[in-house]
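In response to reviewer comment 3 from the previous cycle, which asked for concrete evidence that the modeling workflow produces usable outputs, we include below a single protein chain processed end to end. The sequence was submitted unchanged, and the resulting structure tokens are shown without manual editing.
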Amino acid sequence: MRNWYDLPTYYDVSFSYDMADELAFINNVFRKFIKSDKPKILEPACGTGRLLIPLIKKGFDCTGFDLNKNALTYLKHKLEKNSLHANIKYDDMINFSSRKKYDGIYCTVDTFRHILSEKSAIQHLENITKVLKKNGIYILGLHLIPKKKKVDKVIKWTSKRGRLTVKTIMSMIKLDKKKRRETLEVQLKIKRDKSTDSYTSKYSLRTYTLEQLLSTLDKIIDLEIINIYDEYYNISKPITLNSNSDYAVLLLRKK
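The workflow returned the following structure tokens.
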């Protein structure tokens, strides 16, 4: 069984699928709230740079870090191939630090949920406040456990890049609300020309109800929620969360 984060080409193709709205939202948020011609932004756990690279092309001064060396090597190669520059570092979401201060930070599509304890989640958020400028924006996106609404147990999508096709099947194989653990299995079915292959990976994420998320955020006195959006990333239509909300994109501002 392979960790799909150790397969950066396939991971990058898979997760570059249908990200136009997400990318436009991040760009529009930072352009709206940051008064700088070239905002300095940070992506914790940047992976293969699926968002980082297009944001560089849009004129942002980007920094990213990750714990996976395969992903970082892949990202550095992509930057070099496209004659682009970014500050890329090996670091983790809990203990990271920086002398540089950032105008904006983003962490979407459940990356935050890889942090598996309350203590570590708080440490991550406290470190965010340390490296974020006053009035800087942190975009935080994650799935929530709704009180009554049924949670999808299998999600499938197919992505293509040139002669490479990656079919991704993501299945929830265990949900323990008491321990706040969701175990996911991901199958990557690869097709390139006439050859086929497949890889399976398992990993755990921490779960959050709306109440649990707000409880964690309440412990970070230097961050305030200024707007909340859903998975459609419509910046003109903020939402109000309720106990049946299953996805949230929060705009947090440093006081």
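The chain has a mean pLDDT of 95. We consider this sufficient to address the reviewer's concern, and the full set will be provided in the supplementary archive.
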